[in-house]
Amino acid sequence: MARVLIVGAGVTGSLCAALLRRQTSRPLYLAVWDKAEDSGGRMTTASSPHNPQCTADLGAQYITCTPHYAKKHQRFYDELLAHGILRPLTSPIEGMVMKAGDCNFVAPQGISSIIKHYLKESGAEVYFRHHVTQINLRNDKWEVSKQTGPPEQFDLIVLTMPVPQILQLQGDITN
């Protein structure tokens, strides 16, 4: 069974995990590691420590679907709308620039609900507080070290974290 690691539990990592699961017919061990305490990356929803019903999106607050992206990604919008994860944005936002053909969406359960949906769909084992520090090639396997715990080996690694974080990695990955 192939072992695949996706580093980063934001929108790119979660969607990558879901697409890998959907497109792969053979058995696959799929893991997602993130250095944070929860998924979302730059699309995080925070809850008040005093009232969990009180939330705030810390990254994107809405999503714009342009005619160009609608042609390429309509199935993703349709899926998220069908599951109630996205809803059309019907109220104006001060300062928002609307272009002809654009459609805006909000996530009533918080923008990170998109990420949580795709992680769930992927069936991946998701680990938080796994800060990758080094990646080395050992006997045709990628050995991944993190700040704590022993290194683990994978057949394939997908890095989805921001480029500045990728550039901080040590090991064979730099070559």
Report what the structure shows.
By secondary structure, the protein is α/β, with parallel strands linked by helices. The chain is 26% helix and 31% strand. The protein has four helices and 13 strands. The chain has helices at 11-23, 67-82, 112-122, 163-167, and strands at 2-7, 28-34, 45-47, 55-57, 63-65, 87-88, 103-106, 125-128, 132-138, 141-146, 152-154, 156-159, 170-171. It has a four-stranded parallel beta sheet with strand order 8-2-1-12, covered by helices on one side. Strands 11-10-9-13 form a four-stranded mixed beta sheet, with no helix packed on it. The chain is globular. It comes from Papio anubis (Olive baboon). GO terms for molecular function: oxidoreductase activity, acting on NAD(P)H. Pfam families: Amino_oxidase (PF01593), NAD_binding_8 (PF13450). InterPro entries: Amino_oxidase, FAD/NAD-bd_sf, RNLS.
